[in-house]
Amino acid sequence: MSQVALVFPGQGSQTVGMGKELYDNFEAAKAVFEMADQALGFSITKMCFEGPEEELRKTFNTQPAILTMSIACYMVLKEHGIEPNIVAGHSLGEYSALVAAGSLDFADAVRLVRKRGQLMQEAVPLGEGSMAAIMGLERDVVVEVCQKAQQEFGAVQAVNFNCPGQIVIAGQATAVEKAVELLKAAGAKRAIMLPVSAPFHSTLMKPAAEKLALELDQIAVRDAVIPVVANISGQLVKNGDAIKASLVQQAANPVLWEDCVAQIVNQGAETFIEVGPGKVLGGFTKKIAKDVTNLNVEDLASLQKTLDYFKEVR
Known about the structure:
This protein is an alpha/beta fold. The protein is built from 14 helices and 10 strands. A 4-stranded parallel beta sheet has the order 2-1-9-10, sandwiched between helices. A 4-stranded antiparallel beta sheet has the order 4-5-3-6. The longest helix has 21 residues, at about 60-80. The mean pLDDT is about 95.
């Protein structure tokens, strides 16, 4: 049987109601939500299931909510005998991947990502930073145009290399707007301003990264028992200290998702399961590695479809 990769989504995939079907039908999922509530000292379960959406969208709530939902899905998959050969996660999703790989305890991870969200929001006051998705330009063109814009207008850089033809830029709000104009002039098909509250993965996040390092020093980061592909390098990482260092760097450095997927394929994975809310990563994977099988697990229907697929191939 082909190797299986589990990939975990990041911010932006959250929806009110996420996880409720699995919570209602599987004790394994319910236990994860209950553990999260206990670790955080408030009901992230209620926020996931009932919202309100504006609360769920706040980065310090979004991050623990998506992590909890993703690990609930993972535990249900595990209960059905589906174990990964390799894992990765996009930005916040890297923390979910590390829980699945045995490097982080779930309770530590859920508290850590809530703190991460708070630190990221504090690093740049609301309204001062922004992000935009750039469609239809080559990687080197986006990087070059951002460097020009940065010299003239302030901090802006390419921060998410998601897939061919989709790169996200981030920085100071005015610099991002000017860079968007220049990128359109350089031939970008579309540029979409993203509804985010901070310029994630840009150099403006350095204060958050420094404080995150102190938080990480207080928890156990073990060697991974399953290979993990790191956002910052697109390379395999297993050693606990290297994982800790990569998480610190990740906060203020670009996410090389296209490289991560290429590495997973290079390691022999032919089946990708997106574990958690949404199908964003599946869309990226189709553009990076056209021959792999894409599945996802976020509710009963998608779980059943995934389980049926494995019954056929086994």
